[in-house]
Each structure stands twice: as C-alpha cells, then as structure tokens.
Amino acid sequence: MTICYTIKHTIGGHGYEICKHSGLARKSAEVWKKLPGEGEMIITSNGRPIAILAAVNESNLEASLSAFRQARAVEAVASLQRQSVEQGNDNVSMDEIEAEIKAVRRKRAE
Questions:
Q1: Cβ–Cβ under 8 Å, residues 19 and 27
Q2: What is the domain extent for residue 68?
Q3: Are 13 and 37 in contact (CB under 8 A)?
Q4: Residue 45, SS3 per DSSP
Q5: Residues 45, 20: one domain?
Q6: HEC string of 47-78?
Q7: What are the b/e assignments for 30-49, b being 16+ CB within 10 Å?
Q8: Do 30 and 68 fall within a single domain?
C-alpha cells in the first residue's frame, strides 16, 4: 500500500508529495525517512489537505517557524481584504473609520 505519492502537477512550479494521514499513523518511520529529501509533505484526510510537514533541523528551526508564521499572517490579511471587498467595506473613508473608532471608544467608556 502506497502511503505517500508525488503529484505531477505543481504548486508554484514545484511538484509535491502527498501523504494520507492514515498512512502517516501506520508507517510514520517511512515518512520520517522520506521527509528530509522531500523538504515538505502535504498530509490529507479524505483526499483533502489538512497539514504540511516540513523538514527542519536545529539550525533552521527558528527561521522556518518565522517564515511559516509570516506566511500565515499574510494569508490572514489577504483573507480579511477579500472579506472586506465581498461585504462592500473596501471603500470606507478615513472619516467613517475615525467615526467608528470614536463610537467604540465612547461605548467602552460608559
């Protein structure tokens, strides 16, 4: 039974390795051996991505965590921007923003 397989289509110009979460649980030693050569693997459940495993070591752990957190923050901002456009809030003026802030501060002071 194949627990991990390489996808031929790419994300950002690179092929990627997929690993079923059930295979990860049963054959984790095989995954740990393969991970350093792959760099990262996408873990799936029911065919849907649920996690990314990334190879790290003591010398790159902090930089890797920092890059991961920065990528998540960028995605969070992009998501908020998409929601703003969807809700029609992308053209709010600075006067409207300042009025909203003052109203909230007034309410907190009460």
A1: no
A2: 61-109
A3: no
A4: strand
A5: yes
A6: CEEEEEEECCCCCCHHHHHHHHHHHHHHHHHH
A7: ebeebbeebeebbbbeeeee
A8: no
Distance CA 72, CA 59 (A): 22
Q: How many structural domains compose the chain?
A: 2
Maximum distance among all Cα pairs of the chain, rounded to whole angstroms: 65
From first to last of its 110 residues, the chain has per-residue pLDDT tens of: 455 655 555 556 666 777 777 777 777 888 888 888 878 888 888 888 888 888 898 999 999 999 999 999 999 999 999 999 999 888 889 999 999 999 999 999 98
Tell me the two tokens of residue 90: 């992308």
Distance of alpha carbon 108 from alpha carbon 84, whole angstroms: 25
The model carries a pTM of 0.59
